[in-house]
Amino acid sequence: MYTLLKNNIIDFDRLLLEKYRALKLDEANTIILIKLNNLLKQGKRFLVVEELVETMALSKEEVAKRIVQLVNDGFVALELSEIDAKEQFNLDETYKRLSYLLEGVKQANQENHVNDKIKALVKVLEKEFKKILSPIELEMVSKWHIEYQYTDAAIEEAIIKTLRYKNRSINYVDRLLRLNHQEVKKEPSTTENIQELFNKVYVHSK
């Protein structure tokens, strides 16, 4: 996410306008950061306050004061150019903070998606098994998705087999899932089979 933001693949302006409150920025400092990012996109790394004041309802002194605040808060980093010792700036820390926010949202969405799948699965099980699942059974069902990460197809197959055997036990479904998972892990890969066959043919041909 950081690289995508820094390379302007993700729209920095739009994202910052959406998330500035989460970063504890006010509107004026947000606009200054957007202007600084636009300067970087133009290849301008030297900090010139006059270029920021244009189109802003703030004085040069106020903008300079706010830049100092943004530097102190870690949103803007300043460094001296090795060529002419002029002061250059970067927004790397701002990109990082925004990327952390995006990753947090992504993780939360993934967790919500898993929780929705668990809820839907519980409804199916209670309907098909004609009973309310106990807390222990609910925990077991949650682990199928969260801890063991069984596929939907594997879970569905185990439930169908359990019902076919006229069994209404969550423990039985769990047992079938574990057995199936162990069998899948034991299956040799196609690459290994081909390699073994090659070795046999190669040895016999000598």
Characterise the protein shown here.
By secondary structure, the protein is mostly helical. The two termini are 55 Å apart. Helix 6 (92-129) crosses helix 7 (135-146) and helix 8 packs across helix 9 (170-186). The protein contains 10 helices and 2 strands, in the order H-H-H-H-H-E-E-H-H-H-H-H. The protein has 2 domains: 2-96, Arc Repressor Mutant, subunit A (Orthogonal Bundle), CATH 1.10.10; 133-206, no CATH class. The chain is elongated and about 80 Å long.
Keywords for this entry:
single chain, 206 residues, mainly alpha, Arc Repressor Mutant, subunit A, 4% strand
Which oligomerization state do the chains in this entry correspond to? Answer: single chain
Give the CATH architecture of the largest domain: Orthogonal Bundle
Q: Which series of helices and strands comes N to C?
A: HHHHHEEHHHHH
**What's the CATH superfamily of the largest domain, by name?**
Winged helix-like DNA-binding domain superfamily/Winged helix DNA-binding domain
Structural class: mainly alpha
Task: Give the overall shape, derived from the CA principal axes.
Answer: elongated
CATH topology value of the largest domain: Arc Repressor Mutant, subunit A
Number of domains: 2
Strand order of the largest sheet: 1-2
**Rounded mean pLDDT score:** 84
User: Largest beta sheet, briefly?
Assistant: 2 strands, antiparallel
Q: How many DSSP E strands? A: 2
Euclidean distance between termini CA atoms: 55 Å
**What percentage of the residues does DSSP assign to strands (E)?**
under 5%
CATH class designation of the largest domain: Mainly Alpha
Rg over C-alpha atoms, rounded to the nearest angstrom:
29 Å
**What percent of residues adopt helix (DSSP H or I)?**
55-70%
Parts with pLDDT < 50 across at least 5 consecutive residues: none
